[in-house]
Amino acid sequence: MIVTTTPTVEGQPVRDYLGIVTGEVIVGANLVRDLFAAVTDIVGGRSGKYEEVLQRARREALKEMEAEAEKLGGNAVVGVDIDYEVIGSHGSMLMVSCSGTAVVV
Question: HAMAP family from the xrefs (predicted)?
């Protein structure tokens, strides 16, 4: 499955547009991870635990989108957009969503 943020796949003309496909993943924040992230914010540096969670959520959202495209008979997704949104009563959850157009190239 080809997944790209560009509107086309270079050298491979789109033969059929199958529709918009999406993938969404919501992950909860962990109190212990939040405490370590707060310490990292104070002393500086990167928060490795949060980065791991973001990477995993992004991979899962993309896989979900690819699976939807495959169900429609597509072999590529073009024009992919990935968004991140903090949700929940106190910003306690993170939503990663991606969307694109399923196509046959």
Answer: UPF0145
| Distance spanning both ends of the chain, measured CA to CA | 10
pLDDT top residue among 43 and 2: 2
Do residues 78 and 101 lie in contact, with contact meaning Cβ atoms separated by under 8 Å? yes
What is the set of domains in the chain, with CATH numbers?
A: 2-104 (3.30.110.70)
Q: What is the 3-state secondary structure (H, E, C) of the chain?
A: CEECCCCCECCECCCEEEEEEEEEEEEECCHHHHHHHHHHHHHCCCCHHHHHHHHHHHHHHHHHHHHHHHHCCCCEEEEEEEEEEEECCCCCEEEEEEEEEEEEC
